[in-house]
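Supplementary Methods, section 5.1.

A reviewer requested that the exact input to the structure prediction be made available. We therefore reproduce it here, unchanged from the version used in the analyses.
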Amino acid sequence: MIEGGAPVLPADAPEALEAAIHALWAGGIVGLPTETVYGLAVLPQPEPLASLLIAKRRPAEKGIALLVESMDQVEPLAEMGPAARRLAARWWPGALTLVLSPRPDVDLPEPLYGPTGTLAFRVPDHPVPRALAATLGPLALTSANVSGEPDATTAAELVAAVGHSISLVLDGGPAPGGVPSTVVAFERGEAVILRAGAISPAAILGVLG
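The structure derived from this sequence is encoded token-by-token as follows.
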């Protein structure tokens, strides 16, 4: 355990994924590594989402991304136009978050929706979060920090920021990227970069032509 409150397991420990699954099913918040920065994951249900917003001191209206294992978990939830598919084919798994319009029959908890009623999706290039999503389905995922503060790039930084609020941390060592994902939305089919991150705007536009 790192001083600060939350139990910590090495992410590659044999019992790590099972422990994380149990913590998530119990409604807890799990800190986990990605290839960019550390994240906080919960089941996409009202009570865990409320706890996550409190832990991060994050406004509910900002929306929380969904961690998915692959594009197959996006298809039932959101519309993917040609531009989004090109970006996903190039950078998923990877440091790309796509903001998409939900399908008409999708009804998810309010904190998952952005201010324009959209849903955000991320497929990390890291085996731990993707293994959890493969087992449990899409999970709510946000950066491991207090809203507005620097992103955590180590388990120790995560615990120092929000350790007393979470159930478990999976320690995968220092995050190799250290820069958040690039966030791309679509307006009338055109890509709009909402946050320049690990993937440069020039690279995004280059793929889109």
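The chain is about 25% helix and 20% strand. These observations are discussed further in the main text.
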